[in-house]
Specification:
The structure is a single chain. By secondary structure, the protein is mostly helical. It has one domain. Helix content is 76%, strand content 0%. It is built from 6 helices and no strands. Helix 1 packs antiparallel against helix 2 and helix 2 crosses helix 6. It is globular. The mean pLDDT is 91. Keywords: Membrane, Transmembrane, Transmembrane helix. Pfam families: DUF2809 (PF10990). InterPro entries: DUF2809.
């Protein structure tokens, strides 16, 4: 019985890792090609933010493994809000990093309450589709 539970946990973690990679690829593709294929600004901007929120949930789920999904979701939302609030903190080296592509994707540049809403939507969607929910 314990072996079956361990196998199910390992499978769920593998699926979460695969989902992280798919979500990252989708987010990068959306930001890179969204305007090229004439997607509206709101879809590109906030769709990318929702995918970022989903990625945070999945990464938290990988770290917190066997925790209840509700705990993982709350921790992910806490982390996402913390990163958004971190945008109020400025130092020359941090602002220089934020001007790079990696810095913009990881930390963002400007605080936005709408981003927090998009993160929450992405976290909720990732939680709803989490492979470990069964």
């Amino acid at each position: 019985m314990e072996g079956a539970m361990r196998e199910a946990h390992s499978r769920a973690q593998f699926l979460r890792l695969a989902a992280v990679l798919v979500v990252i690829a989708a987010g990068l593709a959306l930001r890179r090609f969204g305007y090229t294929v004439n997607l509206p600004f709101v879809v590109v901007k906030y769709g990318g933010s929702a995918l970022w929120g989903a990625m945070v949930y999945l990464l938290a789920a990988l770290v917190l493994g066997k925790s209840p999904r509700s705990v993982i979701a709350v921790m992910a939302l806490f982390m996402a809000v913390a990163v958004e609030l971190f945008r109020f903190y400025h130092t020359p080296w941090l602002d220089a990093f934020r001007l790079t592509t990696a810095g913009a994707l990881l930390l963002g540049r400007i605080f936005s309450v709408r981003n927090i809403l998009a993160y929450a939507i992405g976290i909720a969607a990732a939680c709803a589709f989490d492979s470990a929910r069964r």
